[in-house]
Amino acid sequence: MPDLAELAQRFAAHLGEARQFSRSTAESYARDLKAFVAAMRAQGIEEAARVEPRHIAAYLTGLREAGRAPASVARAASGIRAFFRYAASELKAIGMDPAAHVRPPKPERKPPRILSEQETARLLETPDERNPSGLRDRAMLELLYATGIRAGELIGLDVEDVDLRLGFVRCAGPGGRERFIPLGKAAAEAVGRYLREGRPHLARPDKPERALFLSRRGGRLTRQGFWKLLKKHAASSGLDGVSPHSLRHAFAAHLVAGGADLRAVQEMLGHKDIAATRMYAQLRRPSLKSVYESAHPRAR
């Protein structure tokens, strides 16, 4: 009978090769699946064919009871379902998909914290531009806010993906979908200065690198490296709750508040469904009371 751990390793390798998932999602699925396999082994279940729907449901319930965030539990459920679908449909390693009818719990959707324009400016101006790393960090933050791209898309950029003359960035999102996003003046200036004065000092002559943003060792900056830098700059600017997605949220919310067309914002964000983009319009919608008080002649 197919070994559960072995199939999980094959699935992890498949995730790395498939283009239907972003790298971040693939890594998260692999971690979640590793924990699921360990939990099954603790119950004496070594073969994939022995896993039943009740085992999966009990595992997800255990995650919820352990205090895992609803979004994390939902992601774990999605990863488990994708794994068993792959094992049953593509590998033909098991006859029945035990996760086919397991529905992930719907995570409670809390509106994201949106940085104000003043907070955003404070964060963007934090890096020390007197050194190459500071020039790089300023360029990264400006680029994130100017384009709304994801952190994974940011570190995946190569030098040739940015056209400063035309003012566009070419970005490959999840599934390899390519999009072109306008680049504002402030971001273009920050990236241009980094390319002229910062990147040459980070690059290694003996190790050519196409990546736009380099680490101190001359290689492509990693997601973890960027996350550490962002936390450092957020702390320096006195901001709490800042994540790699914060500038993406700010980009969208500030555009919508300024009157930008939702379809255009959807295209720039790379959202498949405009419902995901509509959230930003709802966040900026004034309350009925404030509308009444500002508009009704007898309200004041």
Fold and architecture overview:
This protein is mainly α. It has two domains: 4-90, DNA polymerase, domain 1 (Orthogonal Bundle), CATH 1.10.150; 117-283, hpI Integrase, Chain A (Orthogonal Bundle). The chain has 13 helices and three strands, in the order αααααααβββαααααα. The protein has helices spanning 4-17, 23-42, 53-65, 70-90, 117-124, 132-147, 151-155, 185-202, 223-236, 246-257, 262-269, 274-283, 288-295; strands at 162-163, 168-172, 178-182. Strand 2 and strand 3 form a beta hairpin. Helix 3 (53-65) runs antiparallel to helix 4, helix 10 packs across helix 12 (274-283) and helix 11 (262-269) crosses helix 12 (274-283). The termini are far apart.
Instruction: Please trace the helix and strand order, writing H or E for each element.
Output: HHHHHHHEEEHHHHHH
- The secondary structure category is mainly alpha
Mean pLDDT: 88
List the domain count as a whole number: 2
Distance between the termini: 76 Å
CA-based shape: globular
Strands of the largest sheet, in order across it?
A: 1-2-3
* Helical run tally: 13
